[in-house]
Please model this.
Amino acid sequence: MVTELWFLAGTLSRWALFAGLFVAVGAVAFKLVVLRRFPGFEAETEAEAETVGVAPERLAARIGGLAVLLAGAGALGRLAAEVSLFRDPFEPLAAEVRLLVAGTSWGRAWLGQITAVVLSGLAFALASVRGPQAEFGWIAAMAGVALLAYTPALAGHAAGAEHFVTPAITADTFHMVAGGAWLGTLAVMAGVLYLGRRRGASISRRRIVDWISAFSPLALGSAAVIAVTGLFAAWLHLGAVSALWTESYGRTLGLKLLVLLGIVGCGAYNWRRAPGRVVEAGDPPRLPPTVTLELSAAGLILLVTAILTGTTPPAH
Model:
């Protein structure tokens, strides 16, 4: 019973890590791709936005900072779960933690995650303030988030693959970044619009449509990267097609693919219909309800991924 509880704790911790990572990547992508083309809320002047503290890039930095805190909580939860599952009851707890962190490749990857969390958190905090230092904060946030996106592959199935370890780690990293660039950016965009409206920003339909237009090519490109890297990982870890229905790893992967198809369907609908739905909606203007459905499915697929990463692949 205790083992099952710690496995559940490890699964939820991995979910928190992945969710925080996705949104942190999304905050950076929102700044680089969407706000680079369409800064501000458009219905108000830049001076007005700064006065009430609702400049979109500052709100995105705050969301990114909260996401990094969530990732950090997930990393700490993972450490607790790993120690509790594999510790020797006859050894001191401190010695067990020290051995896991300093003496294993998993522990070194975990240290990299904590380093990335601290760096990214400080960087997002700097990016959320007024002044020229905010740009430096965004540059540091890019570096920290890039490191954070790299670490799960070092502690996961990619690093444990029997063949093509370096391509597997590279593909896994691109898979995580692409997922964050798609679903994380959508979450940040929705969060910025929600927080901006709560803080009194006047947001026009035109600006929402502009942001969707800037986001759509990013989402399409990210979906393509996810498809290619996901197929490579499935080929590497499954070993045989029959494992999709004969192994627990394969069945969990099949569930992930099913949820992903639902997300793709929502994304395709939003790509074609969301601008028109925003224009037709009443006041205040907002993203269509299908965006909420897409983000809910994203949370579910991250949970399935957390279970999948805790399951031994048949090819290992």
User: Anything to note?
Assistant: Residues 134 and 243 are 49 Å apart (CA to CA). The chain has a mean pLDDT of 87.
